[in-house]
Amino acid sequence: MDFDRLSPNGVNTSTCRINSLRGLWVFLNRPFSYIHRCLQGVKSAIHYSLEITVLNALSIPALAFFVTLSMLFFLLKSGLASVAMDHPNTRSLHSSPIPRTGGLAIMAGIAAAWIAARGNGLDLMWLLACLLALLSFADDKYGLPVLGRMAAHIAAAGVFAWAYCPPDTAPWVGAAVILGMVWAINLYNFMDGADGLAGGMALFGFGFLGVAAWQADHAALAWAGFSVAATALAFLAFNFHPARLFMGDSGSVPLGFLAAAMGLSGWQQGAWPLWFPVLVFSPFGVDASVTLLKRMAAKKRFWQGHKEHYYQRLIALSGSQKRIVSGAYVLMAGAGISGLLGRAHGDWAVILLLGWGVFYFSMMVIVDKRWADYLRGKHVD
Fold it and tell me: Exposed site from 110, 335, 340, 372, fewest CB < 10 Å?
């Protein structure tokens, strides 16, 4: 073909064709270029997704929720949920064996959230929580010595304190941080004894930590809190009374660790005062701490399982797990909301804390009296 042929009007037809093809290519390529630029933008947004945006605040917790929910369905449908069973004992509120592998699904959702937003300064916290979950699952399955478990809890708390505390931290402060974290790990485990109770505390507790971090413009802590709360919400679909499975130590131990670790991290970064996470998780902290002190004063083996927690006695008095756990949700919501108010209005903090102290003391006195009357009536019968 002769590309140098001229048209009758003297125009080079080959040049016209080439220009036309170029114009057509540019026209057709525009949408593809636009899509390519959009995809590049999405890729960059995903890679650098640690700024506080509505998308990040929802997408990562949504991922954690669906991973946990899918894992729960898989465990139950495949029968793998029964690899570790919780058999009834004197401490139990259930009468037949129930799988205690729900913590694996919770941690799968948490791990997915960690992978989706890694490199945000919280990687060590997530890693330690996952390691504690694996160790605790081995305890659920095989039963590990108490001293071995405690050594692992102390080691995890010690590594966290070493990594997050400033270099000039006084030794006694570091020791107090480790002791507080070890207690948080164990008290959460102690309080995991009623359908929906520990899952509800995770939903409300970490949810309110997320809200406070969001308000303080701390992106990493915000999505972390919302992600843990999302896994708890998915878990409650199978754990609220009557429970189809329990979280087991593989869930309660890392959740206790994360509550302490996130609380301390937020305090160190100025997201909230130290009393805020203490108040948010006070429905668990007060019951577990007072019960422990009472058992120690009575020279009982406080490290062994029992049915002397206030929530256990309330369930025995009312005869309804669902009613008491639902009431606990109201208490958890009240503690979290008042904590947000106290954080926003610093001059309210002292009044709020004193008010909660009076409330808890009054409630414990009432429950102790009702329990004593219940035991006397039972003895008479």
Answer: 372
**What CA–CA distance (Å, rounded) separates 216 from 353?**
21
The per-residue pLDDT of the chain, averaged, comes to 86
Q: SS3 breakdown of the chain: % helix, strand, coil, rounded to 5? A: 75, 0, 25
d(CA 364, CA 294): 12
DSSP 6: B
- CB count within 10 Å of CB 60 equals 24
Cis peptide before 242 (omega within 30 of 0): yes
CA 58 to chain CA mean position, Å? 15
**How far, in Å, CA of 227 to CA of 79, rounded?**
27
The Cα–Cα gap between 333 and 311 comes to: 17
Beta bridge partners of 6: 12
The closest alpha carbon to 257, from 145, 107, 360, 119, belongs to 107
User: Does residue 121 surpass a pLDDT of 50?
Assistant: yes
> Is residue 295 exposed (0-12), middle (13-18) or buried (19+ Cβ within 10 Å)?
middle
> For the chain, how many helices (H) and strands (E)?
14, 2
Q: What is the CA radius of gyration of the chain?
A: 28
Count, residues in the chain? 381
Q: Name the DSSP class of 243.
A: P
Q: How distant is the alpha carbon of residue 9 from its chain centre?
A: 78
Shortest CA distance to 183 belongs to which of 293, 89, 266?
293
Which DSSP symbol is given to 12?
Answer: B
Place of tokens 């999405």: 42
Q: What predicted TM-score, i.e. pTM, was given to this entire model?
A: 0.84
Contact 234, 228 (CB under 8 A): no
Of 310, 307, 226, give the one whose Cα is nearest residue 262. Answer: 226
